[in-house]
Amino acid sequence: GAVVSQHPSRVICKSGTSVKIECRSLDFQATTMFWYRQFPKQSLMLMATSNEGSKATYEQGVEKDKFLINHASLTLSTLTVTSAHPEDSSFYICSAPDRGGNQPQHFGDGTRLSIL
Amino acid sequence: AQSVTQLDSQVPVFEEAPVELRCNYSSSVSVYLFWYVQYPNQGLQLLLKYLSGSTLVKGINGFEAEFNKSQTSFHLRKPSVHISDTAEYFCAVSDSGGYQKVTFGTGTKLQVIP
Lengths: 116, 114
Fold this sequence. Notes:
The complex is a heterodimer.
Chain A: E1 4-7, E2 10-13, E3 19-25, E4 32-38, E5 44-51, E6 57-58, E7 67-73, E8 76-81, E9 90-98, E10 102-107, E11 111-115
Parallel strand pairs in A: 2-11
Antiparallel strand pairs in A: 1-3, 3-8, 4-5, 4-9, 5-6, 7-8, 9-10, 9-11
Chain B: E1 3-5, E2 10-14, E3 19-21, E4 24-26, E5 31-38, E6 44-50, E7 56-58, E8 64-68, E9 73-78, E10 87-95, E11 103-104, E12 108-113
Parallel strand pairs in B: 2-12
Antiparallel strand pairs in B: 1-4, 3-9, 5-6, 5-10, 7-8, 8-9, 10-11, 10-12
């Protein structure tokens, strides 16, 4: 069964809305989680590393004020797309390392975000 | 830092024929290697992984891959494909250490033709 749960699976909203996406590790603790973005017909690009109890680490070119990450507990990380615009429409996927911080990582089922 | 190259963006193959999806990587340190499959509008599912040990790795759904350190390759193979194998396949690499971020290739679309 799934070891990482991502919610919601699909969001359609108006431009200017802020959208929160949740990523939960099921029955194991994840002090680190990763957030990826995937454009149509392209690969996954790492956006940021979410660290429990500390600030997230963002990849070059990712706006940290646009994509707010909160890792408030050992099983939950959230990504908030603030004041979303059509260019933010994409497929967002989270992942968490296996138990004990080992590979491979387990991926959520992704969130399809569509901004009108 | 690592990089992954998947030279084939699309691979059409007839049902029950064999297939090989190519993957080459670049890294200055020891690596872990993975193949993931993605069906439309879904997340990623791990097919197989190489962490250490035997260079021939068997995964789910009849897939296997061979780690070739000298050629820095990790090609994915299946002796007989099914229609249900039609999907996007991603090769990925990470440093051999916990919590390391994964770098993905650009993906190969496998199209199985009836």
